[in-house]
């Protein structure tokens, strides 16, 4: 019986299959488009298991799954396979009919009334290139304990069945998915006129979360919320209007907006609760140890309201043995020819926690049909050589960073079906294998430091998220000319993290006392280290906004002015040495998004 695990080898978290280390270069591709990868010597494959198999409470039909997997594995005798199980498409509509109180509830930002999650917003097409359809998905609340229990049982029964089949000898992992786009996003990211979740399940879970977070101390809750009459048993999820507007325009006030800050953190914890429930069930169902994979931790998310996606409890996932690999697509901004490659998740943080980060390389190729409207703003190679150069750029990141990767034919239309790609993919695989035979080391000279918790202090929009993290990294640090590691504040306290020449502090608007102590240790007075603070470092404490806090941390003096406006800068002169060569009128800042929105 095949086994797999993740363990340290040559200083990196490494995939072992039958106790042999395997370089994790894989392909996500349909069964009719495997030829190029097989000829290139790719041995690891992943694919989506299609169709409906969860028919009712304790009722299943696994026949289509058995036929699909058996056919797939027969096509590549030397291959190993990771099925992707998308729970979002299981249980519709019967599960919601049985448990209406456990389904997500969306409310209008304008009126506060309940609205349909199926209404289409024309702005979404301008953002993604296509509409988002939720009509055939099981829009359960991520706060639902009922769903966690029943989905976990369904996953257990599915994997126990599959692991008893002959094809199980070829399965090296299970990839468990749910939520929008299979990526454990809350459903309503693209319902731009509304916010969720106002279900009974969400309210109950939020109250439970508050008791745990505040250690059942009612006085502590009242101090944090600045509400002398609030009670655990009656606390409510803030209205969409409250959540949409921050007291300090682009920053929540730590007390006035604390109910919103708390609920948005609760959303992330609820998502992790769901992930752990199904992954623990998967582990229990396996007769022999095998690894599990999930999408999570999208710190550099390409979404219009990233604060609502539920991906800001990564530490909890990293602390669990139920999850071995964490995946994310690489960032969509500046990813075309001549562009940059970096993951949406925190790959370095994941690696240092002893888990594998899998980089989903869903890049377009010259063979991607022009009918694919998804992310039209991403430049598509127009030549074979342009495609090969882009693949080299994408593979180089994985090779240099110790990250795993799978090439992805996103629409199963033969994006990689070309004899011209066999030799380039083979060479890239061989290079990855040779590098892993060495003892890779971190060559980062710069630390790009981010905070998951600070994301909870931003209202749901891109603004500061783009300016201090995503666009800063994808368009500017990518051309800095020196290698940089992407870390969280807490990573800096790890004994295996080196001291860097430069610390770029990206979004540290809020810092806990523990995080302040970490930075004080990293950057003591007189030590020849340089810190670049992007915006308002440590302005937010647990009780207020504080210029004194900023000054104590940075050694700089600050003033503040209450102005509600985008923080944009425009180049008005090009005769200064700093601005020479820049286009007159060029703008950057919180109100500028050069990488995401499509032209009409």
Give an overview of the whole structure.
It is a single chain. A hairpin with a 2-residue loop joins strand 1 (4-9) and strand 2 (12-17). Helix 5 (145-162) runs parallel beside helix 9. The longest helix has 28 residues, at 258-285. The chain is α/β, with parallel strands linked by helices. The protein has an eight-stranded parallel beta barrel. A four-stranded parallel sheet has the order 18-17-19-20. A three-stranded antiparallel sheet has the order 1-2-3, with no helix packed on it. It contains 16 helices and 22 strands.
Summed up, what is this model?
The chain is of the alpha/beta class and 600 residues long. 30% of the residues lie in helices and 16% in strands. The protein folds into 2 domains: 4-437, Alpha-Beta Barrel (TIM Barrel); 446-589, 3-Layer(aba) Sandwich (Rossmann fold), CATH 3.40.50.
Shape: globular
Mean pLDDT: 94
Radius of gyration: 24 Å
CATH class of the largest domain: Alpha Beta
In helices, the fraction of residues equals 25-40%
CATH topology of the largest domain: TIM Barrel
Strand order of the largest sheet: 4-5-8-11-13-14-15-16
Cα separation of the termini: 54 Å
Number of strands: 22
Instruction: Give the full name of the CATH homologous superfamily of the largest domain.
Output: Glycosidases
The appropriate CATH architecture of the largest domain is Alpha-Beta Barrel
Q: If helices are DSSP runs of H or I spanning 4 or more residues, what is the number of helices?
A: 16
The low-confidence parts are none
């Amino acid at each position: 019986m095949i086994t797999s695990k993740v363990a340290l080898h040559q200083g990196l978290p490494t995939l072992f299959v039958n106790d042999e280390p395997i370089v994790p270069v894989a392909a996500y591709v349909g069964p009719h488009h495997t030829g190029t990868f097989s000829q290139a010597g790719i041995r690891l494959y992943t694919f989506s298991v299609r169709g409906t198999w969860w028919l009712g409470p304790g009722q299943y039909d696994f026949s289509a799954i058995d036929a699909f997997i058996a056919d797939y594995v027969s096509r590549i005798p030397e291959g190993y396979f990771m099925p992707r199980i998308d729970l979002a498409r299981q249980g519709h509509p019967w599960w919601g009919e049985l448990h209406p109180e456990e389904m997500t509830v969306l409310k209008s930002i304008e009126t506060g009334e309940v609205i349909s999650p199926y209404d289409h917003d024309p702005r979404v097409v301008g953002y993604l290139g296509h509409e988002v359809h939720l009509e055939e998905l099981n829009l359960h609340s991520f706060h639902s304990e009922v769903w966690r229990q029943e989905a976990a049982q369904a996953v257990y029964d599915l994997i126990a069945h599959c692991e008893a089949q002959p094809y199980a000898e070829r399965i090296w992992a299970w990839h468990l998915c749910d939520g929008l786009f299979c990526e454990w996003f809350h459903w309503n990211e693209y319902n731009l006129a509304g916010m969720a979740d106002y279900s009974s399940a969400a309210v109950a879970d939020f109250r439970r979360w508050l008791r745990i977070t505040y250690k059942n101390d009612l006085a502590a809750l009242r101090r944090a919320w600045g509400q002398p009459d609030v009670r655990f048993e009656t606390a409510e999820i803030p209205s969409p209007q409250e959540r949409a507007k921050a007291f300090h325009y682009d920053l929540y006030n730590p007390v006035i907006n604390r109910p919103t800050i708390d609920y948005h953190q609760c959303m992330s914890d609820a998502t992790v609760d769901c992930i752990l429930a199904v992954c623990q069930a998967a582990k229990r169902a396996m007769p022999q140890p095998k690894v599990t994979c999930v999408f999570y931790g999208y710190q550099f998310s390409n979404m219009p309201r990233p604060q609502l996606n539920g991906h800001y409890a990564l530490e909890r996932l990293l602390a669990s043995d139920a999850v071995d690999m964490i995946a994310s697509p690489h960032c969509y901004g500046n990813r075309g020819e001549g562009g940059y490659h970096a993951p949406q998740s925190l790959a370095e943080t994941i690696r240092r926690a002893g888990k594998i980060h899998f980089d989903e390389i869903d890049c377009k190729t010259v063979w991607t049909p022009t009918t694919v409207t998804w992310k039209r703003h991403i430049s598509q190679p127009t030549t074979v050589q342009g495609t090969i150069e882009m693949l080299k750029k994408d593979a180089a990141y994985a090779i240099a960073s110790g990250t795993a990767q799978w090439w992805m034919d996103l629409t199963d239309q033969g994006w990689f079906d070309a004899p011209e790609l066999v030799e380039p993919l083979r060479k890239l695989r061989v290079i990855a294998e040779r590098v892993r035979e060495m003892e890779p080391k971190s060559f980062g000279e710069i630390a790009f430091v981010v905070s998951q918790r600070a994301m909870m202090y931003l209202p749901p929009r891109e603004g500061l998220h783009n300016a201090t993290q995503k666009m800063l990294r994808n368009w500017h640090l990518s051309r800095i000319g020196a290698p940089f590691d992407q870390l969280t504040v807490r990573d800096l306290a790890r004994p295996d993290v080196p001291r860097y020449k430069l610390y770029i502090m990206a979004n540290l608007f809020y810092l806990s006392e523990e995080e302040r102590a970490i930075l004080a240790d990293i950057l003591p007075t007189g030590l020849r280290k340089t810190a670049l603070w992007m915006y308002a470092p440590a302005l937010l404490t647990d009780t207020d906004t504080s210029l004194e806090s900023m000054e104590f941390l940075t050694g700089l003096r600050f003033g503040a002015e209450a102005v509600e406006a985008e923080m944009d800068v425009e180049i008005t002169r090009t005769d200064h040495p700093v601005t020479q060569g820049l286009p007159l009128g060029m703008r950057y800042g919180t109100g500028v998004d050069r990488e995401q929105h499509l032209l009409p």
